[in-house]
Amino acid sequence: MPAVPLSIIGPIFEQFAELLPDRTETHPLGCHNPRIPDRVVFEKLVQVLVFGCAYEKIADGTCSATTLRRRRDEWIGLGVMERLREVVLDGYDRAIGLDLSDIAVDCCITKAPCGGQKAGRSPVDRGKRGIKRSVVVDANGIPLGAIAAPANRHDSPLLNQTLDTTNVLGGLPQEASIHLDRGYDSRTVRERIRERGLVAEISEKGKPAPIAATKRWVVERTNSWSNAHKKLVWCTERVGSVIDFWLAFSAVIITVRRLVREGWTHYRWEGRPCR
After folding, report:
1. Which domain holds residue 226?
2. How many CB atoms lie under 10 A from the CB of residue 19?
3. Does 234 score more than 60 pLDDT?
């Protein structure tokens, strides 16, 4: 059984392949090993993302662990995954429509046992090394952007950088509401939100704020979707650009999954899955 249904991975790879540069060069002597097809490497990386296992565990006779790392770094250098994330968001916006009138931001702490450039002492895991993932979503929980930071960073200083990830959409509309938990309840945060032309809906410290009574629950749901990709839950990567690659890859799969699901109820097309 594939790590992700073919109805989702198929369209993702088709668009991904369109963003890759053409490779027509060959070795002048014709004595080198043939290049592993991009589709094979792509599907192996999907398994690494979903199962969270080491590259050596996924490697087999069709593709080695060294090839997986080398091709991953090649795609990072080309910025293909970030471009794919922008294409996917644009496709969702045209087919279904992003609801930017209400956005939500929240953080999630995961493990980083190997440390690295974006790891820090986790305040919720006995000081072990961890990564804090700050995510911004629209009113329906579609991930608009995410950043990774050390787990010992406070949520509020990451807010501006997280909102900056929405610049690929042309920015957020004026007077849009931003929903935050009580960890962001400070005068500095409110001033920064006001400078951006947004309306702050922040849970106040010391007062009960059931998540079901607010519009903040969608970001919690998106975090749970991301945590289904075990590479983000137990991140053994040490290089910051590689971690960003996996964050973008996870967001692409989540967005396309929602696009297929929402499109299934609104449209009909050839090859439409039965469920």
Report:
1. 99-238
2. 14
3. yes
